[in-house]
Amino acid sequence: MQNDSSSIRHRGKAAAQQMDGLDAETSTPTAIDTPLDTPRTNSPLNLSIQAALEARIIYPPKRIKRRRWFISGIAIGVITALSAILYVNPTQNTHINRMQEILGDFDVSALLPDSLLSDEFVHDMTKLLALDKQSGPIRLTGEFEPAMTLEKEGLRKKHNVVLVPGIISSGLESWSTANCSRPYFRQRLWGTSTMFKAILLDKECWVQHIMLDKRTGLDPHGIKLRAAQGLDAADYFITGYWIWGKAIENLAVLGYDSNDMTLASYDWRVSYYDLERRDQYFSRLQSRIELAQRTGAKTVLVTHSMGSQVV
User: Fold this and answer.
1) According to DSSP H, which parts of 162-202 are helical?
2) Count of Cβ atoms closer than 10 Å to residue 42 Cβ
3) Of 68, 66, 80, which Cα lies nearest the Cα of 121?
4) Which 3 state secondary structure label does DSSP give 291?
5) Residues 193-228: tens digit of each pLDDT
6) Are 288 and 149 in contact (CB under 8 A)?
7) Is the pTM of this model over 0.70?
8) Contact yes or no for 219/213 (Cβ under 8 A)
9) Residue ranges of the chain whose pLDDT lies below 70
């Protein structure tokens, strides 16, 4: 009787150990959605599958940090573009100096992986952007062509010229003096490098200036954004991206200056009705044309895109 009891206890203990082993086996996580209560056998096929799944768990594939390389690519592109403009286009020193001041606020090296800041990388970039003096004459942006050729053929200025830019071409500058507007007083929040600085460092304030009031269609309360004036209002959008700059350069070769060539910039965000009601845009344009007519000179309106509808 005692032997039977010990035998039963021994078989019960063995069965309990077997059940514990089965629970531990079936609760092992796998890389695919397999039922955890599925019994497993020790067949060669199952052992091979289990070994493959465990290998996938133990040795997961390495993921490339795409975001890091994306930011690095943007930073390298900006540096390359600025460097190329600095070497190839010395006629835009004002824009370049302004861009350098803004870049002084950024730690560009913090955006780049350490592997890209090696001496070899810096040497390659310097060699790529350096001017090769042995490769012939350098073609600058300020070549004033085709006006130089036309001038030799006898072409000269005749009528007054008014340039009317298209949509989003005119620079918009802040005239607000309250709250977040103070650092941007008479700074362009649309166009030039100041816009990018405001978007990156003070996005909420920039949006408040660019948006219009949904009820009035004008600037929100406390915000005053107006179109920049003069030929600089739409000559370059940002450094290296000219809009009317080339046309102004070529007209200057033919004898035009600020007395007989003007740029009628406008706030392209608002309706035509509000352009007249708030800024007297069309009245000013008419007065400009009539003033030139008093001297017997005609005025030619040179428009682009939305400017054709404005006039």
Assistant:
1) 192-201
2) 7
3) 80
4) helix
5) 889 889 999 999 999 999 999 999 999 999 999 999
6) no
7) no
8) yes
9) 1-70, 80-142
